[in-house]
Write a structure and sequence with these properties.
By secondary structure, the chain is of the alpha/beta class. The chain contains 13 helices and 15 strands. Strands 8-7-9-10-11-14-15 form a seven-stranded mixed beta sheet, with helices on both faces. The longest helix has 21 residues. The protein is elongated, with a radius of gyration of 21 Å.
């Protein structure tokens, strides 16, 4: 699926393309708040409520900013943002996907945000020809399903997992590591990649239940304590990670916790408690959102009242890719899909060019380590690719 360069957009010029150029096509008399609408819609698909909502809200707020900026620049032909609250649940994803598919004015989706819901909804989107750009679902198998409508605005766990493993081995120099995962498509896949890198350094592994189904982790905590490890890796999301960290600390386990992007949120600190969370290492196939190019951070904070969080910037970029296509007159699902497939340009978080399976060009992928310091998640360092 490697495409020739379709459009070259430098830095904040992505927004210039959205703001100027070909007019979007009018196909509706619908109105939007504060101005006219052409009837065109995009959606955010992810958790907006429930135990996994913090990351979804980060992303939805980035999409909101992109749409607001677009509509200010195109007041005569606005785009409507449709929120699709999955609660991060694969069980809810198919019904929500069908709701999106049935809305003929809905041209593209930012999301699904999580790997499990992406697995459940992807076949439906593919059959309907409805393009999706996920800002955060990182399971590598998603790009191997022959879905023509799947695109990913971040690196996958084949980049994040080895980077996390290399950080544990080369930066932390841990000789004994315990690996835990939540059995989700994302968590188990990420943990497996870490185990491949660490090899015999992994002295034990275990599985727990995610999605708020388990709160007592005493059994695994006992095993970790008995193993006398120097580090614990967790593949899963922030709610369970926080509880595990809290219970490890309560049992006297001082080995630091390392986890992936599903835990890379301030909500993890709330779940664990500030004292227990201190020193946790969190990886992400992304740069710090507050280091995004241009005025993104200031604009995001002005709209949402808070600094951008994990994947706020990639969600913003994913939305702007869809909006650039709409601005260019690609106002049917097949036309917008072809636009995204051939897209090449620079956003606030990264440079985007999609290759086989809808993956982001690996040359553009960065993996960062973040650290919980003083009750906040702060950037630690970019992790070398090898």
């Amino acid at each position: 699926m490697r495409q020739k360069l379709a459009r070259v957009i430098g830095g904040v010029a992505m927004m210039a393309l959205v703001a100027g150029g070909a007019a979007c096509s009018s196909g509706s008399d619908d109105t939007a708040s504060g101005g006219d609408a052409c009837g065109n819609k995009i959606a955010f698909f992810g958790a907006l409520t429930g135990s996994s909502a913090a990351l979804g809200i980060n992303e939805n707020n980035g999409v909101k900013l992109a749409v607001e900026q677009y509509n200010k620049a195109n007041a005569d032909c606005k785009v409507e943002l449709v929120p699709l609250d999955s609660q991060g649940s694969p069980d809810q994803a198919p019904g929500l996907a069908q709701k999106a598919i049935d809305d003929e004015k809905l041209l593209g989706i930012v999301g699904p945000a999580y790997s499990g819901e992406s697995e459940a909804a992807g076949p439906l989107f593919n059959e309907a020809g409805l393009v999706t750009i996920t800002p955060s679902a990182t399971n590598p198998t998603l790009a191997k399903q022959n879905w023509k409508t799947f695109f990913r605005a971040v690196g996958n766990d084949l980049s994040q997992g080895p980077a996390a493993g290399n950080y544990i081995k080369n930066v932390m120099k841990a000789q004994k590591v315990y690996v835990i995962d939540d059995q989700s498509a994302y968590g188990a896949g990420l943990a497996d990649e870490v185990k491949k890198i660490l090899g015999p350094v992994v002295v034990g592994s275990d599985k727990v239940q995610g999605d708020g189904k388990q709160t007592d982790f005493s059994a695994v905590v006992t095993k970790v304590k008995a193993a006398g490890v120097q580090a614990v890796f967790y593949g899963g999301y922030y709610q369970e990670a926080g509880l595990i960290r809290k219970q490890l600390t309560g049992a006297g386990v001082t080995a630091p916790l390392i986890a992936g992007d599903g835990v890379n949120d301030a909500a993890y600190i709330t779940s664990a408690g500030q004292a227990a969370a201190e020193g946790t290492i969190l990886t992400c196939p992304c740069q710090p959102a507050t280091e995004a190019r241009g005025n993104f951070t200031a604009d995001y904070k002005a709209l949402n009242g808070t600094d951008p969080g994990t994947y706020s910037d990639t969600a913003y970029d994913a939305a702007n890719i869809l909006l650039a296509g709409i601005k260019a007159g690609k106002t049917t699902r097949p036309a917008l899909l072809e636009f995204v497939k051939g897209y090449s340009g620079e956003g606030v978080a990264a440079t985007y060019k999609f290759v086989e399976g809808g993956e982001l060009d690996p040359a553009q992928v960065k993996v960062w380590a973040f650290k919980v310091t003083g009750g906040k998640v702060v950037p630690d360092q970019e992790i070398p690719k090898s």
